[in-house]
Design goal:
Strand content: 15-25%
Bound molecules: flavin mononucleotide
Order of helices and strands: HEEEEEEHEHEHEHEEEEEHEHEHH
Radius of gyration: 18 Å
Strand order of the largest sheet: 3-4-7-8-9-10-15-16
Helix content: 25-40%
Largest sheet: 8 strands, parallel, barrel
Shape: globular
Distance between the termini: 31 Å
Structural class: alpha/beta
Number of helices: 9
Length: about 300
């Protein structure tokens, strides 16, 4: 069996066309820009898909600097959804995605349910856009974002609105901070999500001891990187036992071993974020190491080990 067949996946969906990917590695939103500008740094054909920067109806300038801080085993960011806005994305980026043949999923963020609907409606049918990831989990904006992801009712309302607006695959990205991840996962599944991304960053902060004040301009930020991995893994494990739509793992993945753990916990695919910002060759390495592991272990397809670590 060749590499492509072993790693090729279809995120089966009941309500939209299946999303076919060459491999289960996606680059996480906000860590790979709009993909096209990375041409000189990374092999654009290596990842199964790219997830665009969080996109809003109007362009946004984002939060005051500093927006990034290193922490032990991870980093904090408080970008505040700086982005070019959905119309510019459709006009300037989507045609390039279409031409280059890469798979790009657009991450969207609104401050009202209607805004999420409008974003999804504008992206529906746009060539070059393969799916929508609904961000209801951004800890770095004042209005919207995380507040929709903290309760099953609001998460469900946003998902239903996006579902109504588009026939594209709808992936809903959840927060680790709600305290009721399983209930929210069930709610978005019932509202028509095709897949769930687990997880976004976890709210955190750092203090500059010389200036005697918070290090980030936004005071708090989102923690990402290896420190997040055990939290993400336990959430994937928990939710995999509850919903039957595909889960896309995200949080601290930097090696094939990390990815395999998430697949064994029940994920169908996985995202790489912070590790890619540190080293753009990480996706190619993970894919190659994943394939070597499958050959060594005589695994014919990634689905063969999906959820195998679930203790019934
Ligand atoms: C600089 C930066 C910007 C991000 N921007 C977004 C965003 O716009 N939308 C979103 O849903 N997640 C965003 N995220 C969260 C990542 O997509 C991902 O969920 C998180 O970083 C955890 O994965 P990691 O540990 O592999 O980085 C951002 C993360 C970072 C580090």
């Amino acid at each position: 069996m060749n590499t492509i067949t072993r790693l090729e996946i279809e995120l089966f969906t009941s309500t939209s066309k299946p999303l076919k990917l060459n491999n289960p590695l996606l680059l996480a939103s906000g860590t790979c820009g709009y993909a096209v500008e990375l041409d000189n740094f990374t092999d654009l054909q290596a990842p199964g898909a790219f997830i665009s920067k969080g996109t809003t109806l109007a362009p946004r300038e984002g939060n005051p600097q500093p927006r990034i801080a290193e922490t032990g085993n991870g980093m904090l960011n408080a970008i505040g959804l700086e982005n070019i806005g959905v119309d510019a994305l459709i006009k300037e980026k989507a045609p390039i995605w279409h031409k280059s043949g890469i798979t790009v999923i657009v991450n969207i963020a609104g401050s009202t349910v209607d805004e999420y609907y409008e974003l999804a409606a504008r992206l529906d049918g746009v060539s070059g856009v393969a799916g929508i990831e609904v961000n209801i989990s951004c800890p770095n904006v004042q209005a919207g974002g995380l507040e929709f992801g903290l309760k099953p009712e609001t998460a469900s309302a946003v998902t239903a609105a996006v579902r109504k607006a588009t026939s594209l695959p709808v992936i809903v990205k959840l927060s680790p901070g709600s305290g009721c991840t399983a209930d929210i996962a069930q709610a978005v599944t019932s509202a028509g999500a095709d897949a769930i991304t687990l997880i976004n960053t976890f709210k955190g902060m750092a203090i500059d001891i010389h200036k005697r004040k918070p290090l980030l301009g936004n005071i708090t930020g989102g923690l990402s990187g290896p420190a997040l991995k055990p939290i993400a893994l336990s959430m994937v494990y928990e939710v995999a036992g509850i919903v039957d739509i595909p889960l896309i793992a995200c949080g601290g993945i930097s090696t094939a071993q990390d990815a395999i753990e998430f697949i064994m916990a029940g994920a169908s695919a996985f995202q790489v974020g912070t590790a890619f910002m540190i080293d753009p060759s990480v996706p190619s390495r993970i894919i190659s190491d994943l394939d070597n592991f499958f050959v060594e272990q005589d695994i014919e397809h990634v689905d063969e080990i999906k959820g195998c670590a679930q203790v019934k």
